[in-house]
What does this fold into?
Amino acid sequence: MPYTPKDAFKSLTEEIKSTGQSRKLTVRELLSYFHQQRRSDPVVRWIHDNLEKFGIECIPDFEQVFIDSTVELRKKPTIKVQKSSDGMASKIIRDPIPRLALLPAANREPKTVTRDADLNHAITLMMMHDFSQLPVMQNQRDVDGIISWKSIVAAQTIGGPCQTVKECLVRDVEIVPQDAPLFDAVKSVMAGEVVLVRAQDRKIVGLVTVADIGQQFISLAEPFLILEQVENHIRSLMDDKFTKEQLRTALDPSAKERNVEAISDLSFGEYIRLLQNSEHWGRLGLKMDRATFTKRLDEIREIRNDVMHFHPDGISGDDMETLRETSRFFYSFSQFKRAI
It folds into this structure.
């Protein structure tokens, strides 16, 4: 990685080791020591390497919890390193599975009502906070069930008394551990519309609904959709402007045997390589600065690589704005071309 952590992180680790006192901070704060906003694969490896380098462990692993969750940095205990049969030190194995704990909703302690609460109290809470359901609990760990608009209407339809929460209660609600695989949990939410989330200490720490899943995947899908739009604009701009021989000049040396018939056969990086040639750039007939244009495309290429490595954190706000700005640029440009 071409990054160097600021002296502040080194000072933090030295303080932890010299005093023997651990330090609690959020994952977001840990990332800020490395001038990062999200946990892409390169950033995760970089931080893990530095924790190892400075003799610090992170409990729980910052990679596997919600970005605003609190983790604890502490001096790594001195232990004898187990050598493998080939004499190499064993490496820490990272969990490759995204967990439910990464979602914001799985880390927001839900508002609850007790089973003996007045129904009007539950209805008021649901209306006030725009909730479609409320967990029914006597304490932080014991779940009696859930009350929802659907369960209230169902109880009233059959002519029940419907004066207290327990008279509109649905006891069948799925409780999912916070460390459950994310995509397994998503299936449970889609099947039952809602799941409660239980932490390792058995406390209910979240409530995830279909709406939460929808919002999460909308935020993850937007970069993919914008990237597709940008790439389509680039192809439209370059289509039929180059011969097959000219297109082949953009190929990576290791891919010279690849068949290239049209601009769509090139990768995003190869679009850039093609346009970095001043003669090729001239074939587009654009009254724009080539260096500025290709520099922006290279920024998009880097964001594209990041987006393709799916992570629930999504991409940074700055990268998202770069995508939107580029999409607006190409849209305005295409509208202007149609008008002339």
In short: The longest helix spans residues 210-238. The domain at 104-208 is CATH 3.10.580.10 (CBS-domain).
